[in-house]
């Protein structure tokens, strides 16, 4: 660790027996008052005071950074619990002394957030399941099957990652209109049911399995399908979880595509719902804040529950390659 | 695998080929009239137009405002959180928290905080009674970039932290034994070891910032005076407001070209790092 050397030494050779990691300032006094302290004690105390100062400095820095970064989210939650007049009052109210939760029911019912969240969940679930299934199947074929043009097809899968959706969105929208899928769940999901990134990621997990596994399975007469469902998928679970979380975040946060393939309010996803919530009047601005909190809540819950897997998914491309 | 191929065929290959082809035809001023074949003329005309150059400039400025800042702040947070302290996980969670905000959530939070009448940031910036920062041609792009940096900070922090964890502790300890102070260790050991992560994050960040759309749509709508009219927004505008598919197609090929350059750099970096490890 990058802990400072002075502190670490002082801690390990501390003769006074006072718990060095305790932040209790009484500890310093106790040492000072200790009649049995050895002659070097004053120097030790100076060291210790310095270390404490450094420690306090670190917490101060971390807390300052956390305040700046967390502030927009904090104030959004606070403002969702204030009356609109309180939000407009100056100096600003930074703590809800008398929280008013009615903005949430207004956002949920009048603002239709309930319906939008449901739509987002339906669309996201279909996309995540679809991406995991197609990625696992394609990855299995690339990792364990022999077939003509395997290499070329794999390169093609990778090449699809080079055409970002932002390049083709309007042509795809025209395709959706031609198919008669405008304003349907099909439009929101089908174009995302396959992903080159997913196939690539899962293939890596499969290739990391010991090759003897497949050979042994073959000797035992275990078919590909049973091997895939009983052996390969359970063993590749961390990779699959990372892909699932990654695609959950991507699908839930989509903005441009749902904006251009739906107009019907009953199909609106929560991200597009925010676009309309944004323009509420000043006298209902607490409802806008409450709606934003509701829209952000699902991903916050996921972040807290699955931080490790999510980090894995996010760093898969950037660090492990 | 065949379902994947169908999806790729219909929603990646076909539209991409169609975009190249659309770029060769002029979209008629009224729907229903036949398209006119213009060969490469339309590409030439649009790619040299002042409007395109302005949009390209805005895109480049946006990239320059978001990517280096995002990397530096992410690195700062990662270094600050890379220590064994009581309660450090709480700080780590707060630092990564913006990963859980979508671009729409981030944009609406700041749109409301910048409300010219009741916005808290408006008050703190001393701009009450004036038009919103988002309507100020001088500041709109900076504001949009700021929101983007904040929203990407969580991701940037996570990537940098993962990179830091890969720096071997004994290397830092050896430097410490040799008398290197904290700054010198950061500058001479950590940063060089981190350079693959830094480069990679820069390229990924660059690709993401080329694709920015949601924050522009929600915060400024491409204005004021087209000062935030980045490429993707210009495409959206061309198709859905000007009904000019041909123009959007040319822009899309330009966007593809820019993304391709960054992607190729990314693959290069990957290859080089792999060969390092062997």
Structure description:
- Chain A is mostly helical and 321 residues long.
- Chain A folds into 2 domains: 5-80; 112-320, MetI-like fold, CATH 1.10.3720.10.
- Chain A is 71% helix and 0% strand.
- Chain A contains 17 helices and no strands.
- Chain A has helices spanning 5-12, 26-33, 41-80, 84-88, 102-109, 113-144, 150-160, 165-178, 185-189, 196-207, 212-219, 224-235, 237-252, 256-261, 270-277, 285-305, 307-320.
- In chain A, helix 5 crosses helix 16 (285-305), helix 6 (113-144) packs across helix 10 (196-207) and helix 13 (237-252) packs across helix 17 (307-320).
- The model of chain A is unreliable at 1-37 (pLDDT under 50).
- Chain B has 278 residues and is mostly helical.
- At the A-B interface, helix 3, helix 4, helix 6, helix 7 and helix 8 of A face helix 1, helix 3, helix 4, helix 5 and helix 7 of B.
Short summary of the structure?
The complex is a heterodimer of chains A (321) and B (278). Chain A is an all-alpha fold.
Give the secondary structure arrangement, pairings included.
The complex is a heterodimer of chains A (321) and B (278).
Chain A: H1 5-12, H2 26-33, H3 41-80, H4 84-88, H5 102-109, H6 113-144, H7 150-160, H8 165-178, H9 185-189, H10 196-207, H11 212-219, H12 224-235, H13 237-252, H14 256-261, H15 270-277, H16 285-305, H17 307-320
Helix pairs in contact in A: 3-16, 5-16, 6-10, 6-13, 6-15, 7-10, 10-13, 13-17, 15-16
Chain B: H1 2-22, E1 25-26, E2 36-37, H2 41-47, H3 50-81, H4 88-96, H5 103-113, H6 120-124, H7 140-165, H8 169-177, H9 182-210, H10 214-219, H11 231-240, H12 245-277
Antiparallel strand pairs in B: 1-2
